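This part of the workshop introduces the protein records we will be handling. A record pairs a protein's sequence with a compact description of its fold. As an example, a complete record with its sequence and its structure tokens follows.

_____
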Amino acid sequence: MTLELRQKGKPTGGQVVTLVRRIDGFASVQEHITDDKGRVSFAVGPADFYLARVKIDEESPRPDGSKGQKQLRVNLCIPSF
């Protein structure tokens, strides 16, 4: 299975994407890093639901000129047949 991560319409490279199989839970965790095209590939097993998770940290400007941290978290449930 190949997933593509985009932020504001552009590929997002260098992000850790975690894939977890529902039945096996955290015993089945796979983690991979997106390439420069924002893509990551995982080997999937038997038919089941998979949870793909990613957390993106980004800086956000504040009115006083300093920079704050903002986290974006995405969870995607993917059925596999």
The mean pLDDT is 89. Residues 9 and 38 are 11 Å apart (CA to CA). Strands lie at 2-4, 6-7, 10-11, 16-21, 25-33, 39-41, 48-61, 67-80.
